[in-house]
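[READ THE FOLD]
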Amino acid sequence: MHHPKTLTDDSTVALTGAPANALTVPGLEQVYDRLATAIDTVGPDKTGLFLVKLALLNAHALADPAVFQAHIEAAQKDL
């Protein structure tokens, strides 16, 4: 499920249908930087395993298989 981006008055990007506590652009940039650093730290041989573990931890925290499936579908688009 693709969520179109909309620009809000306070210059944050909100995803349509996202919860009110969705990350701001600076928050997303921080997450991206930490993820990139973690991928570099684990190395190419362990990147796949790391990403699966991270996805499962986040799925558990999300506690909604349907939303997680929608995220999988959105992530698969335009690779």
Notes: The CA atoms of residues 29 and 36 lie 10 Å apart.
